[in-house]
Amino acid sequence: MTADLPGDLRAAVIELAQTPHLLVALDFDGTMAPIVDRAEDARPLPRSAAALAALSALERTTTALVSGRALASLRVVAAPPEPTLLVGSHGAEVHLGPSSAELKPSLRQATALAEARAAVAQAVALYPGTMAEQKPAGVVLHYRQASETDGQAAVDLVNQELAQNPAFTITTGKMVLEISVVSANKGEGLATLRESTHATATFFAGDDVTDEHAFAALLPGDVGVKVGQGNTCAHFRIESPHQLPAVLELLLAARTNGGTHNA
Ligand SMILES: [Mg+2]
């Protein structure tokens, strides 16, 4: 089942499983779930979801999802196992358990947010196939379903309106342009998770440019896995979300068997 994984990745995962407190943090879209045209249709691959649930039930093991999605959207599509911690909006929203506070933008952030929403709404009205997604601290321009020309024109328009203003953090993803009024990234999100769980080592997998912040935040002994094509600072790579179940199942088996798996 895991025979198609690179040998060095197998060895690193088995080694990682020996750590006293393990943090397993995963991106969702393009990592646990294949990329789909309509974001609301994304669902985790059943084997990845099952492995995550099994890992979340282990002692000395914390699971987390680290996504660009707003937490509300992430909860709907990922249906994460109850103890799973959540980082949404690329780190701007964090759910560390039942007492976790919800994000409340300041007045200045709220004013900037209104400006960003207006700029994206203007682009969406002008260019067919583009759409806006609202987040608590940002707005996303999606152009996956627009023509190349319209998509680029929409991106240019939004950048022209907002890019000079330091109130905005603008991030480019896969056919999305994201404007946030909270400066945060997945690396900061991962650091928050590590601190709050006292994890002694971390597994992280992600597919997009925004995941590079998380890979860069990994420490010696952690394992970072880039999913799919593209430049990365992760030490390991798998071809697609369809290879992730084998990685998670290996981690689960090695963690369940304790030292006996460390051949
Ligand atoms: Mg992703």
From TrEMBL:
The UniProt record lists the keyword Transmembrane helix: no
This protein's UniProt keywords: Hydrolase, Magnesium, Metal-binding
EC number(s) recorded for this UniProt protein: 3.1.3.12
Protein name as it appears in the record: Trehalose 6-phosphate phosphatase
Family: Belongs to the trehalose phosphatase family.
MF (Gene Ontology): metal ion binding; trehalose-phosphatase activity
Reactions listed under catalytic activity: alpha,alpha-trehalose 6-phosphate + H2O = alpha,alpha-trehalose + phosphate
Function description: Removes the phosphate from trehalose 6-phosphate to produce free trehalose.
Pathway noted in the entry: Glycan biosynthesis; trehalose biosynthesis
Gene: otsB
Annotated PANTHER family: TREHALOSE 6-PHOSPHATE PHOSPHATASE (PTHR43768)
Cofactor(s) required, per the database record: Mg(2+)
Native source organism of the sequence: Arthrobacter glacialis
GO biological processes: trehalose biosynthetic process
Record bears the keyword Nuclease: no
Any one Pfam family match given in the protein's UniProt record, by short name: Trehalose_PPase
Domain of life per record: Bacteria
InterPro entries according to UniProt: HAD-like_sf (IPR036412), HAD-SF_hydro_IIB (IPR006379), HAD_sf (IPR023214), OTSB-like (IPR044651), Trehalose_PPase (IPR003337)
NCBIfam families, A to Z: HAD-SF-IIB, T6PP
